[in-house]
Amino acid sequence: QVQLAESGGGLVQAGGSLRLSCAVSGRTFSRYAMGWFRQAPGKEREFVAGIGWFGGTSYADSVKGRFTVSEDSAKNSLYLQMNSLKPGDTAVYYCATGPVTYDYWGQGTQVTVSS
Length: 115
Hints:
Elements: E1 3-7, E2 10-13, E3 18-25, E4 33-39, E5 46-51, E6 57-59, E7 67-72, E8 77-82, E9 91-98, E10 104-105, E11 109-114
Parallel strand pairs: 2-11
Antiparallel strand pairs: 1-3, 3-8, 4-5, 4-9, 5-6, 7-8, 9-10, 9-11
């Protein structure tokens, strides 16, 4: 059974940085996509950043130039380096994976950015 566990969330002032981590276990498919999503109160969940099974990265326009997604395949881990954080980045952040689409999800980690 595929399991994902996020960590690294917290409270930070605007302009600060956080690094989220996602540990993956039980994944048996050799090709996969991994990504970060977020959901703010009263809003729908949205894509933040991801790495496709082909290795390319993609970002939401709202985080381009501020966030960086990376992977350590040896550690089965995904990371999200978040710099220049804004209050609008406040949300629960989720990581997800799957052989093509995002079929498996973590429980999420709260990120709160104060002004």
